[in-house]
Amino acid sequence: MERTNPKDMAKSFRFSPLRRARFRMSVTRMDQLPADDGAEVAIAGRSNVGKSSVLNLLTGHGGLARVSRTPGRTQAINVFDLDPGQRLMDLPGYGYAKVPDALRLSWGDLLEDYLRRRTSLRLLLLVMDIRHPLGSHDLALLDFARHCGRPVHALLNKADKLSRGAALQVLAQARRNPALEGVGLQCFSTQSGLGLEELHWLLARTYEKETPVETGAKSEPSKGGEGSGPGQGGKSQDRNATTAGFE
């Protein structure tokens, strides 16, 4: 079984392609997207869960993704180039009631088309508020991603808002939810940086793979942290890739 060396994890953080992210374009239709080749990781989540803050922290560029006080401002797929052939995709936020119905439906169609048709998509990164995880829209997205055969890694963001014990309790409850079967899961905080190096390690491995990460059985958390890695088709070789623990 492969073990993750903390030094390797720190190195992947320092040299991650995400640190070289640069904005390329915003698109509202599938035919506007870049050529469907290379590797993409897409970030999705309900409005106001801190998705833009996660993207800014991952890339190390504080203003790369606009952090708005008004939920539902991401109205298109925002495309960020990394190294050649590698992209980070910021998907429209969902679930904000004050968005006009017609616009909300168009976002949903775009998101569904992207998940269904985009062959270069390697991983869907789902951001949830740890205080309100697995809402109806999150469950619908997880179900659709599973239907499309898309691997998912979920972040329980804003873990700094809870005590360590409360955060671990939410994590344990989430692991037992059938909706997260085969889904990688970790606590995360854009305020404290909890889980950042581990997530960089996972994403670096994801971009290196020639084929998408396969969904499968959940791996167990390592002694050094609290989290479970993404399913690997029943294999546990990456079990320490996403141990977002409380040091």
From TrEMBL:
The keyword GTP-binding applies. Its cofactor is Mg(2+). CDD domains: YihA_EngB. It holds the Pfam family MMR_HSR1. InterPro entries: G_ENGB_dom (IPR030393), GTP-bd (IPR006073), GTP-bd_ribosome_bio_YsxC (IPR019987), P-loop_NTPase (IPR027417). Keywords: Cell cycle, Cell division, GTP-binding, Magnesium, Metal-binding, Nucleotide-binding, Septation. SUPFAM superfamilies: P-loop containing nucleoside triphosphate hydrolases. Residues 37-209 form the EngB-type G domain. GO terms for molecular function: GTP binding; metal ion binding. GO terms for biological process: division septum assembly. Residues 224-234 have a biased composition (Gly residues). Belongs to the TRAFAC class TrmE-Era-EngA-EngB-Septin-like GTPase superfamily. EngB GTPase family. NCBIfam families: GTPase_YsxC. Necessary for normal cell division and for the maintenance of normal septation. This is Probable GTP-binding protein EngB. It comes from Acidithiobacillus caldus. The gene is engB.
